[in-house]
Amino acid sequence: MSKQSVAVPFTTLSLDASSPVPLYRQLYEELRQAILSGQLRPSARLQSTRELAVELGVSRNTVMNAFEQLLAEGYLEGQVGSGTYVSRALPDDMLQAGAVSVRAAHARRKGRALSSRGRVIAGTMVNASPALSSTRAFRPGTPALDAFPFDAWMKLTARHWRYPRRDLLGYGDSAGYGPLREAISEYLGAARAVRCDPGQVIITSGAQQALDLAARLLLDAGDSVWIEDPGFLGARGSLLGAGARLVPVPVDDEGLDVARGARACPRARLVYISPSHHFPLGVTMSLARRLSLLEWASRAGALILEDDYDSEYRYAGRPLAALQGLDKEGRVIYLGTFSKMLFPSLRLGYMVVPSDLVDAFKNARAILSRFSPSIEQAVLTDFITEGHFARHIRRMRALYRERQECLLEAARRELGDALELEPNDAGMHLVGRLPRGTDDRAVSREACKLGVEASPLSLYFIERALISGLILGYAGYDEREIRKGVRLLAAALGV
Predict the structure, then answer these.
(1) Same domain, 190 and 338
(2) Cα(89)–Cα(239) distance, integer angstroms
(3) What's the pTM?
(4) Does residue 255 share a domain with residue 365?
(5) Strand runs (DSSP E) across 277-434, as ranges?
């Protein structure tokens, strides 16, 4: 069947700005139902995201997020420069769906409708990777699993499992294994200038659980929260799930623009920030901005969530001191993870909370999932205290610097002016800028078809995306994988 242009009947679309369900999710549901009911027929051509955004009076990002979800699920298909169409072959579970069956299915499901909060959680994007089960260049946040000291880890694990202590096999402390909290406290004081004692450290199942805990405990529905724009999708998801009103604050070369945030919302309840190495732009927040943020938080009575996800990987000088170390009023809650330093499936992270909030966070941690696995915590403790951790971090700094240089060299040779990549003194990924007017989501989809991941930068913006670009993680891939990935990316860009 030949593809044909059609005018989508936008008069039937109904988006409610006051609903707790994000606008992009509402649009996704409306378009999906139009496809299921036959209102939008196979091969029908949709208007562009820009035209649809104007018609509906929403941001273009809202429309692009809805389209991305529909493309991922097989309802839509498209190619760079060609447009977006209703799929000719719909997903299997839709083949027998018609208007009558759709209404019947909705009627059967009325008794198990989600709550308002549940709808927000279910409709919030938290990850940009299309296939989490596989690891391929250039997924960001992936450490060098090929260079991890598995022999040392295996020996430590065998030590604990050969003659396991009874206290490690029973119920553990919700705050975490005591010796691990001590080791983390000592490490953070020496390496990150974090001021804390072991009693302030709470072990979590990664930084994402720490974000969720903080959002649950510190926010009421409708509370305003500053969040970096662009910024981390996982933080956005946790905050929206808690019913927060997000206040997007732009990020420039000095980090979060505190003055802009204060003008937009002078009495925000909470701030989420990644000052040591912003995700995804990679900038470091200046000292002046850090002091300005702490001063504003003191005036506003606000708390700050500091996400320090990969600051160990700095290639020029020592890692920067944490924002928490400058805090004299106990307003900063510091979040860290071992996913980037060791391996993601370990599922161990931590948070450092002000002393007056420790009991509340311990109780909330117990309610959420009781405690993290004790044997893994004990193995990690030995890994740190016996020096393996420090040696591994030193080796990874050198390795990641080499892999970044490999990516830059391959990009210069293969991509030319199609993608502008600049070196960065820190982190595990680079941001490549595309020529003005390029649809980075279309490029990302084309790259994915060829077997390479390149997350579109526009996906991380809440307001209008100011930059078109791709996020390229390099830490977890050897030189062969990096060079192959760049060649595939060149093909996706038509170079």
Answers:
(1) yes
(2) 37
(3) 0.81
(4) yes
(5) 303-307, 332-337, 349-352, 420-421, 429-433
